[in-house]
Amino acid sequence: MTTYDHNLFVIGAGSGGVRAARIASGHGARVAIAEEHRVGGTCVIRGCVPKKLLVYGSHFAEDLVDARRFGWTLGDKGFDWPTLRDNVLAEVDRLNDIYKTTLSGHDVHLYEAHAELLDAHTVKVGDATVTADKILIATGARPLVPDLPGAELGITSNEVFHLDHLPKSLVIAGGGYIANEFAGVFHELGVKVTLVNRGDTILRQYDQALRDRLLTISMTKGISFEFNCGFERIEKTATGVRVVVTNGDPIEAEMLLWAVGRRPNIEGLGLAAAGVAVNDKHAIAVDADSRTNVANIWAVGDVTDRVQLTPVAIREGHAFADSVFGGKPWTVDHGCIPSAVFSNPPIASVGLTEAEARNQHGTVKVFTSDFRPMRNVLAGRNERSLYKLVVDAATDVVVGAHMIGPDAPEILQALAIAIKAKLTKAQFDETVALHPTMAEELVLMR
Questions:
Q1: Which helix (H) or strand (E) holds 6?
Q2: If you ran DSSP here, which 8-state letter would residue 433 be given?
Q3: Which of 36, 82, 248, 419 has the fewest CB atoms within 10 Å, i.e. is most exposed?
Q4: Chain segment 299-330, per-residue pLDDT in tens
């Protein structure tokens, strides 16, 4: 019988890879993991966590204004970008250390080097060559930069957390969640923001009512939007960049942020040498159990381009480790996954949109609550929240829930349990409201 250096070798120490390594080791496997950047992956190092901290920081711009209506007397307010930036980066450092400690505490050997497959069982990692019985690829994805003249003049979400200073003006290319989240953050921090999208809508995967509401609120706040604008080239100017588009006048700003999608990290992994197949999405092709076409190689997370969300990668890594090393096989259900956009205000959604529900179920019932949160009323803000439930008329099962308003993601997490459990609208109606809250609207819709 062949003897290998490791039972499992994981390439990529992001959320999915770390979870898989930890659980596999807990099942008794000899595990090693390789990471060429920092342990923690996109979410911890240059994604969800630092982004959410910037969102928190930007909210004080409106909170300090609203505080006066609640009786607070404030002096002159000012904002210092380096303070927020450095505190956020310090938190990232802390989390990176925690992830390393977690791996060490679970007897997972960490190689802080690039890993490349030489064949299906052999990995070149830094200057070393090691063998493994089973291999898991969890290298994630990176921001996509389009192939056009001058594209290198823009930055991506990887660099946005390290800016020396805040620009006076910013063009954000894209219409997805990253574009809208950073649009809200930088606008609140005093930057003139223009969002340029080659399509005709933002957040196309979300329910139309929420998209329309966010667009209206964002424009009212002062964020500019340019739709149906393809990008021709980016030119350097004395004060920044000029974005030349196919439909409209050139747009000038101090800085350009690319937020036009993400691309799986498959380059330099030696996939061809190991015989691992790639699909038409430039991602590693896997089955429902995250297995590639090579019997002893699996892949999880964004590198597979199934659902690019951190909790999904974590579940995929956990399922792999339990199934392969723990004798407890299970697969991840990629349906009914809740998601959020930490825009200003935030959006949260789970299940089917109204359009999807009509396509799948035919006749549906739609319940909405369009209201001004109590805090906004006293603060003198006209900003309104919108909650929406989509119900299959034949069964009364709530098949979708969609929200935009303060704390929408926090509220929706609990609501997602009800949608996943296939509760009916009648059961929602039977639930006593918790008053006074925004969430009570979910059980008061008639």
A1: strand 6-11
A2: P
A3: 82
A4: 999 999 899 999 999 999 999 999 999 999 99
What is the rounded CA–CA span in Å between residue 320 and residue 52?
Answer: 29
- Predicted confidence (pLDDT) per residue in 25-35, tens digit: 999 999 999 99
Angle, to 10 degrees, between the axis of helix 81-105 and the axis of helix 48-67? 140
Which position among 114, 162, 282, 435 bears the catalytic label? 435
For residue 38, what are the contacts with CB-CB under 8 A and spacing of at least 6? 45, 96
| Of the residues 226, 259, 292, the one at which a domain ends | 259
d(CA 81, CA 382): 29
Q: Domain range spanning residue 288?
A: 6-142+263-325
What is the secondary structure of 293-338 as a DSSP string?
SSTTEEE-GGGG-S---HHHHHHHHHHHHHHHHSS-------SS--
* Residues composing the chain: 446
162 counts as catalytic = no
Domain co-membership, 13 together with 124: yes
Whether residue 267 sits in one domain with residue 254: no
Place 1 in a pLDDT band, splitting at 50, 70 and 90: low
Query: Which residue bears the tokens 């399922």?
Result: 319
- Per-residue pLDDT of 392-415, as tens digits, reads 999 999 999 999 999 999 999 999
Q: Are strands 128-137 and 6-11 parallel, antiparallel or unpaired?
A: parallel
